[in-house]
Amino acid sequence: MKVVFDFGGVVFRWRPEVLMRQCLPTRVQSREDATLWAARFFQHDAGDWGEFDRGAVDADELVERVARRTGLSREEVQRVVDAVPDELEPIAPTLALIGRIKEAGHRLYFLSNMPAPYAAELRRRHRFLEWFDDGVFSSEVRLIKPDPSIFQTALQRFRAQPRDCVFLDDHPRNVEVARELGWQAVHFVDAAQAALALEDLGVLRTPRAS
């Protein structure tokens, strides 16, 4: 079986509301402010940020676009953009889950919406990415989830059939599209829940009680 991981929110921490509080303290005074600014800034992976994910705009152009659209200063936008790599910290329970999957003899892949600068930074910082046989970053193929084309591109890249892939993602729409295309897919909430789902699919064995 080929197990395919999303990255942000699954393998790596992704807390946009926390990022807003840290980077825009004068504008974000409450949890509600953080939620509104996160949605406005990142546009739920659409708009300007979606084009950044797609590799259609670089970081400098992104900063200009977001500043014009939101009314934030260029310095404020740049602060958020620069802070993202430090937010993308590995999630320890997910790494343990990946280890179990690898030990069970399955092959590991990733399929992630990720702007080019962050993709390069993840590869530079994290040696455990060598556990993955291959992967697709959106910015490298100029496609983003949930576009079905990126799933087809991944299948070609991984030399796989949909039925042979299990996909884990924290965004329900991405999971729905994968299933519509014939993939097995798990809506990832946390590593413990995902492990149970993978046991149900036969990817992992239920640990024996001691």
TrEMBL record:
<dbReference type="Pfam" id="PF00702">
    <property type="entry name" value="Hydrolase"/>
</dbReference>
<dbReference type="InterPro" id="IPR023214">
    <property type="entry name" value="HAD_sf"/>
</dbReference>
<protein>
    <submittedName>
        <fullName>HAD family phosphatase</fullName>
    </submittedName>
</protein>
<dbReference type="InterPro" id="IPR006439">
    <property type="entry name" value="HAD-SF_hydro_IA"/>
</dbReference>
<dbReference type="InterPro" id="IPR036412">
    <property type="entry name" value="HAD-like_sf"/>
</dbReference>
